[in-house]
Amino acid sequence: MITSMQNPLVKHVVALRQKKRRDEAREFVAEGWRSAGEALTRGARIKQVIYCPGQVHARDGVLLEDFRRRGVPLEEVEARVLRKMSTAEEPQGVLLLVEQGQFSPEDLRLAPGGLLLVVDGIQDPGNLGTIIRTALAAGVSRFCLTRGTVDIYNPKVVRGTMGALFSAVFLQGLEAGEVLGFCREESLPVLVADVKGRSLYSETKMPWPSALVVGNEGAGPAPAFKEQAYARVAIPMAGGVESLNVAIAAGIMLFEIVRQRKYAF
């Protein structure tokens, strides 16, 4: 059992809070028993499980046995050491070291009824985590993240996805031109979420497959996306409300797209 704050593994996990160190190690940290279960179910490449024996309940013990049977290294730590390693206000007793996904443009290719979600300049980790989780619930698992968007492996993003990240296929750090070039190559019409656009509900017929761009919380999508959009789409709103939180807006649009797809195929 690890009892020292100076242990190399403890220092390594703490260092992974920095994007530079995550990129160098090609690893990230996932926290909590729910994330641990999702990582196992969704086939994440888990390099190590770190847990506090005093915070293991019966069902958690079953999960640890599953990890052990699959040959995943397990490491026990004291509660105070786990708190040092954790970024959560209330650590749940387990951390995972997970290998980052390695994807190429070919991995983003869509089925006939597929949708590529482009996340442009979203800076709030909670928003990005919620968008990824909601997208997966809507059947969307392929993403492009532009430069300026928060790192998908940021601890708050990982926590916000609640395990959905392990099923995401994505490229990040792209320029708008690179995303648009990919969409042209794949013959994907680009729809851009824009409060000044036409109603997604009643004035837009979704093309399939396609790409949907959701933009920065304050500035919205980059001008390049608006200029080259197949359509600029909006959510019809009443009561004098001008805009919604970007994660909420993305969720509403994604499920409207799911509804339209149901009747398109």
From TrEMBL:
EC number from the UniProt entry: 2.1.1.-
Any one biological process term the GO annotation gives: methylation
Keywords assigned: Methyltransferase, Ribonucleoprotein, Ribosomal protein, Transferase
A GO term for molecular function: RNA methyltransferase activity
Enzyme class: transferase
One annotated Gene Ontology cellular component of this protein: cytoplasm
RNA 2-O ribose methyltransferase substrate binding domain ranges (all copies): 29-104
Family: Belongs to the class IV-like SAM-binding methyltransferase superfamily. RNA methyltransferase TrmH family.
Protein name: 50S ribosomal protein L30e-like
